[in-house]
Amino acid sequence: MDDEITEAPATEPDPAPEPAPGPDDASRPPDQVNATSDDTAEIPVSDAPPKRVRRKQPWPIRLTHWLNIPIIVIMAGSGLQILSAYPYMGPQGAQWGWYPLQGFTPPHWLKIGGWLAGGRHWHFAVAWLLVVNASIYLAYFFGSGEWRRRLFIPWHDLQSAILTWAYYVRIVKNPPEVALYNGLQKLAYTGALLFGLLMVLSGLAIYKPVQLHWLTLLFGGYDGARLVHFGGLLLLAGFVAIHLVLVALHPRDLLAMITGGSRG
Amino acid sequence: MAKLITRRNALLSIGSALTVAGCSGSITGGFLKGMEKWNEWFQELLFSSSRLAPEQPLSATTPEMDFPVYFISDMMPTPPIGWTLKVGGLVSHPGNFTLDQLAAMPTTSMRIQHHCVEGWSAIAQWSGPRVSEIARAVKVDPSARYVEFRSFDSGYWSSWDMPSAMHPQTILALQMNGQQLPPEHGAPLRLYSGVKLGYKNVKYVNEINFLSDRTGGYWENQGYEWFAGT
């Protein structure tokens, strides 16, 4: 391993948890710290451990992020293959009239698996890779304390989210001060995590509507779970589209997801 | 060997591993086969002999014309003259059951949701003796771990794990929605269960064998998963 080691928690002289970074915390990149009027956070508090030097995107986050791409592509493609066997919503004899995509079959090039059985094999195999990858991510996310600068906590981040939005629509002149992510970004990425959970749960509800019937009931039954699961795929497509546009506008953030970015 | 595992190298090797996996049929085939085994274990783990498919209200019944009809023969299969249900394999009293004998056995009725592998659902009420009643009547040997159900629909068949076959909601249906089983739905006798996908529920049944080994099935042998629990 190269420089990765230096950011591993094992090299910490003090394993005590780091203090939660507030809006004025020193977890900001240095250039942003200097741009603010309040530099008091730069002075170490006597009983606090030395500030960990952490990259923007530590390697476990980068690894799980990039593994998500082949995993999600296969899940989406095989999912569309499965959908094609019955491209309707609602039970036989009572299909839902309000559902706008009744009978819509996805184009061939979007599907993976060749036929229904193949699509199912891919979907149920790679679903486990998704779960393992997500578990590694979540273990790191909570174990390392990364959640403090990534998780959207309403009473903490709502103001920043609103101010960022106000800045984007040009109601206010300057964006709010941020650590790693602004409130709106935290909201988007936390939403993505909850969304992933929803996809796994609605998928399980379709997979085992009898053994897990309490879960299936939570989605309004088998056909409700199917709708949530496919609706989730459409939402995911929207998330990916917006994500790619924003990354194209901020290539430095893409670089950080490859190299890890600056420490700070 | 002091070769550094750099990020670049690590990413490159992950990338090439995925490329190899995507191009080589044997590696992906092995991966999918292995994961199917894993999923079979997972499904057996989730399965409970006492967990029942929820009973559905009468109002939720699918109109009979909307309940899909399916058989593999070119024409709708008709039962042979003198039809009986032949039960054999690892049993001490193999035998042939007539419809009257089956109708005289304790009857289980259930109105439950049907789950097809294609993704659709439908609801009907099914009535008939449990497969476990048949097993008791023929005295199944403890060495039997699988049950195969065979039909006169061009040899359509499926083999089951014993616990799913002995589930209280696994029956040999003589009736659908309170009427004699219609020819389109497998008359005179079909297998019906809340714990398996549609293609495991053999219609037009005329033979049951209790076995020490699984014997695949019509769709299972073409690539559909064997366990197919719900």
Number of structurally distinct domains of chain B:
2
Helix % of chain B is: 10-25%
**Can you tell me the residue ranges of chain A where pLDDT is under 50 for at least 5 consecutive residues?**
1-46
> What form of chain B results from the Cα inertia axes?
globular
The assigned CATH architecture of the largest domain in chain B is: Alpha-Beta Complex
Low-pLDDT stretches of chain B are 1-5, 10-23
CATH level 1 name of the largest domain in chain B: Alpha Beta
CATH fold category name of the largest domain in chain B: Sulfite Oxidase, Chain A, domain 2
Cα(first) to Cα(last) distance of chain A is 21 Å
Given the structure, what is the number of helices of chain A? 9
| Radius of gyration of chain A, CA atoms, in whole angstroms | 22 Å
Strand content of chain A: under 5%
> How does the helix and strand content of chain A classify structurally?
mainly alpha
Q: What percent of the residues of chain A sit in helical stretches (DSSP H or I)?
A: 55-70%
Mean pLDDT of chain A: 82
Biggest interface reads: A-B, 40 and 46 residues
**Ends distance of chain B:** 52 Å
Rounded mean pLDDT of chain B is: 91
How would you classify the helix and strand content of chain B by structural class? alpha+beta
Quaternary state of the chains: heterodimer
Topology:
The complex is a heterodimer of chains A (264) and B (230).
Chain A: H1 30-35, H2 59-84, H3 116-143, H4 147-150, H5 154-168, H6 183-207, H7 213-218, H8 222-249, H9 251-259
Helix pairs in contact in A: 2-3, 5-6, 6-8
Chain B: H1 7-23, H2 25-46, E1 85-89, E2 95-97, H3 99-103, E3 108-115, E4 121-128, H4 131-138, E5 146-151, E6 157-161, H5 162-165, E7 170-173, E8 175-176, E9 179-180, E10 190-193, E11 205-211
Written account of the structure:
The complex is a heterodimer of chains A (264) and B (230). Chain A has helices spanning 30-35, 59-84, 116-143, 147-150, 154-168, 183-207, 213-218, 222-249, 251-259. Chain A is an all-alpha fold. In chain A, helix 2 runs antiparallel to helix 3 (116-143) and helix 6 runs antiparallel to helix 8. The two termini of chain A are 21 Å apart. Chain B is an alpha+beta fold and 230 residues long. Chain B folds into 2 domains: 1-46, no CATH class; 53-222, Oxidoreductase, molybdopterin-binding domain (Sulfite Oxidase, Chain A, domain 2), CATH 3.90.420. Helix content of chain B is 24%, strand content 23%. Chain B has helices spanning 7-23, 25-46, 99-103, 131-138, 162-165, and strands spanning 85-89, 95-97, 108-115, 121-128, 146-151, 157-161, 170-173, 175-176, 179-180, 190-193, 205-211. In chain B, the strands form 3 sheets. A 5-stranded mixed β-sheet of chain B has the order 2-1-11-5-6. In chain B, strand 3 and strand 4 form a beta hairpin. Chain B is globular, with a radius of gyration of 22 Å. The model of chain B is unreliable at 1-5 and 10-23 (pLDDT under 50). The A-B interface holds A 1-2, 4, 59, 66-67, 70, 82-83, 85-86, 88, 91-94, 115-118, 120-122, 124-125, 128, 206, 208-213, 217, 221-223, 226, 259-260 and B 4-7, 11, 14, 18, 31-32, 35-36, 38-39, 43, 46-48, 51-54, 62-63, 65-68, 113, 115-123, 194-195, 219, 222-225, 229-230.
